[in-house]
Amino acid sequence: MPDHDVAIVGAGPVGLLLACLLAQRGIDAAVFEAREGADGRSRAIGIHPPGWAALDAAGLGPAVRAEALALDGGEVICGGRVLVSLTFDEHRRVLILPQHRTDELLRARLSEIAPHALRLGRAVTGVQDGGAVVRVSLETTHEATASFVVAADGVRSGIRRRLGIGWMPRPGAGGYAMADVPDAARGARAQLYCEQDGLVESFPMPGGRRRWVASDPHRALDDAERFANAIHARTGMRPELPAGMRPTAFRAQQHRASRLVAGRIVLVGDAAHETSPIGGQGMNLGWAAAVRLAAVIERSLRTGRADLGSYEKHTLASAARAQRRSLFYMTMGRPARGPALPVRNAAIRLLGTAPLRGRTADMITMRGTG
Ligand SMILES: Cc1cc2nc3c(=O)[nH]c(=O)nc-3n(C[C@H](O)[C@H](O)[C@H](O)COP(=O)(O)OP(=O)(O)OC[C@H]3O[C@@H](n4cnc5c(N)ncnc54)[C@H](O)[C@@H]3O)c2cc1C
């Protein structure tokens, strides 16, 4: 008998959500996480409707809604002119909550339903599929065994590498700088500035904060002054970074794993697909896949037949759609000058016209992902 039904490697938002969904079904899932403490990095803030559906399925929807800011729409702006203005209907708002807080709520939910599931400070150093059972080697203890192993170990997944699974680059790369700053302005709308010198995004956050993101292809916006000046030059708005705060640089990239299943070992979340943060889809995509995977694992444990093919097919197709959407957003936000600028702006304006407005809102809120 294996030690666990499922061993999950990685307690990021996707591994944690999957563990909650499995525990709710009475499945014994252990989550091995290399870190001792929480991941405090500033990353995801946007939770789209497929993300809420996943959180609802894990019994976390009300707790997240109580803390999140519900974005009711936003504007695309260029040169002081509004090109598109969209309002999301009540049932399709984007919730804004910093990822470290979402992670805390997920951890609390998991400890409520499966108090011993999360094992911190347990780095996984290898996995070996022995047919009926998978062996998981751990840095701190000898090993654990499970019927299935799920690699939710993030974009640099060591398990993906050890299994020799390909990591295929997809179009959509760029450099950006970002800062979450105190902000007294009220309101629940986002602004995307598609300016001659490049993209600036501005999102209200709960707790009187605002996230500013600026395209930064040459990594030139690496201090508070340069970051604030660039945003001011592009938009006329100047974010006030507190003393000592530096913007965070990140490189957007897109990749997909060549396959997600190797026997009884499965990839999920960023380990399976890397989606550009522009558009805020990666975590939501991983959660939607975790919902599918929980159902497939339950069925496989019940019937004794591992049937992971449908999970792989659906998840790769969904990731491909999300990556195309991110590429589109990044392309629209590229610097544009001369005759290219009015042409690009006319294309953006079209997205906000009556026949296309609904589809544009569907695209932004990830309708159809699930
Ligand atoms: C700037 C930025 C903004 C973003 N904004 C959004 C957004 O608004 N909306 C959105 O949906 N997405 C967004 N994303 C993407 C989102 O952050 C990721 O998609 C999400 O974190 C992926 O979750 P995960 O659980 O798959 O992986 P991760 O969060 O990377 O978690 C992986 C975990 O595995 C652990 N681990 C790794 N190796 C091992 C090992 N060998 N043994 C044990 N544990 C291990 C790690 O310590 C980590 O805790 C953004 C990303 C960035 C960088």
Characterization of this structure:
By secondary structure, the protein is of the alpha+beta class. The protein has 2 domains: 4-71 and 97-170 and 255-332, 3-Layer(bba) Sandwich (FAD/NAD(P)-binding domain); 172-251 and 334-364, Alpha-Beta Plaits (2-Layer Sandwich), CATH 3.30.70. The radius of gyration is 21 Å and the shape is elongated. Strand 1, helix 1 (13-24) and strand 2 form a beta-alpha-beta unit. The chain is built from 10 helices and 19 strands. It is 35% helix and 30% strand. Bound molecules: flavin-adenine dinucleotide. Flavin-adenine dinucleotide is lined by residues 9-15, 32-35, 39, 43-46, 99, 123-124, 152-154, 158, 178, 250, 269-270, 277, 280-284, 286.
For the structure shown, list the relevant keywords.
alpha+beta; FAD/NAD(P)-binding domain; Alpha-Beta Plaits; 8-stranded mixed beta sheet; 35% helix; 30% strand
Q: N- to C-terminal separation?
A: 33 Å
Which cofactor or ligand species appear? Answer: flavin-adenine dinucleotide
| Radius of gyration, in angstroms, nearest whole number | 21 Å
In N-to-C order, the SSE pattern is: EHEEHHEEEEHEEEEHEEEEHEEEEHHHH
Determine the structural class based on helices, strands and strand pairing. alpha+beta
The average pLDDT value, as a whole number, equals 96
Count of all domains: 2
Kindly report the name of the CATH homologous superfamily of the largest domain: FAD/NAD(P)-binding domain
Task: Just name the CATH architecture of the largest domain.
Answer: 3-Layer(bba) Sandwich
Tell how many strands the DSSP assignment holds. Answer: 19
User: Uncertain runs with pLDDT below 50, 5 residues or more?
Assistant: none
CATH class of the largest domain: Alpha Beta
- Share in helix: 25-40%
Largest sheet: 8 strands, mixed
Question: What is the CATH topology assignment of the largest domain?
Answer: FAD/NAD(P)-binding domain
Number of helices: 10
Q: State which percent range the strand residues make up.
A: 25-35%
- How would you sum up the global shape? elongated
